UniProtKB/TrEMBL annotation:
Main location: cytoplasm
Gene3D superfamilies referenced in this protein's UniProt entry, alphabetically: 1.20.5.170, Classic Zinc Finger, Zinc/RING finger domain, C3HC4 (zinc finger)
Positions of the B box-type domain: 121-163
A Pfam family it matches: zf-B_box
Record function comment: May bind and stabilize microtubules during myotubes formation.
Keywords assigned: Coiled coil, Cytoplasm, Cytoskeleton, Developmental protein, Differentiation, Metal-binding, Microtubule, Zinc, Zinc-finger
MF-aspect GO terms: zinc ion binding
UniProt-listed GO biological process terms: cell differentiation
Any GO CC annotation of this UniProt entry: Z disc
Basic and acidic residues composition bias: residue spans: 353-364
Name of this protein: Tripartite motif-containing protein 54
Biased composition (Acidic residues): 334-347
Amino acid sequence: MNFTVGFKPLLGDAHSMDSLEKQLICPICLEMFSKPVVILPCQHNLCRKCANDVFQASNPLWQSRGSTTVSSGGRFRCPSCRHEVVLDRHGVYGLQRNLLVENIIDIYKQESSRPLHSKAEQHLMCEEHEDEKINIYCLSCEVPTCSLCKVFGAHKDCEVAPLPTIYKRQKSELSDGISMLVAGNDRVQAVITQMEEVCQTIEDNSRRQKQLLNQRFEALCAVLEERKGDLLQALARKQEEKLQRVRGLIRQYGDHLEASSKLVESAIQSMEEPQMALYLQQAKELINKVGTMSKVELAGRPEPGYESMEEFTVSVEHVAEMLRTIDFQPGASGEEEDEEVALDGEEGSAGPEEERLEGPKGLH
């Protein structure tokens, strides 16, 4: 059933407007709020003038806004709920204006100024019977229609009901549906809030575990650095020991070479002596010195491979493979990890990672 619209409905009927007017009454002057309207911290509204009157009555020594004396503010109680309102040095003028209420008052005054007949509920007219109002509802076709359509029109065989009855019923159904939807929305919002809290908890726990993970690996690095230092010191000691021995031999051979070179030089000079008697006086001693020098046995040289430092080779492949197997332990709780960290710091004992790294000490 098609029908034409004879009038666009207004915002509400007279009863709704009366109810709205009651919500726009100031609890001080008992008149409709006058601009500007201020909103108190307790969310109640007052005319600014009324709020100022109450404030002045509660703070008689407070200076007016136009005074040159700067006041430190004051306080008064809301006339609706007795909530204490604390104001700064601006007094009532520091309160926020309620522009929404002011706009509602403007709309209300505009609607109230219209002629009464324009507010009356207008009726939709039947398209097939232009002079008939839509006053019944066809339950079979689920459309509103007029009485003539029921008597001898398209809905004469249909079940019908009064339009106000169906209007109230469907309006009630829609209201119930809205209530259920709003309740469902509240539940969804609660779930969203809960999941947002879960996200925050995940971030907090992840941040904490990252800190613990960094501490664990920093402890591992500290153990590796300490062990590396020990091995480097051992290598340096062995290097110095070998160098001292070889350098001692070098000094010994050098001293022998220097003495032998001097003896050779003396012997050559003696051989150049032209006088046989003088030569023979020195020859015997030189011959003995040369024979003795040639028979001197020097300390043995370093054995083959003495310069090698291969015994200080460290095998770390199995340790590296073990480090690659480090993984998370789902069963370990954060509290136990905290306690382990505390014990490591207080007692200085080696942790599990340190114990595993102690193994290569004897490996060369």
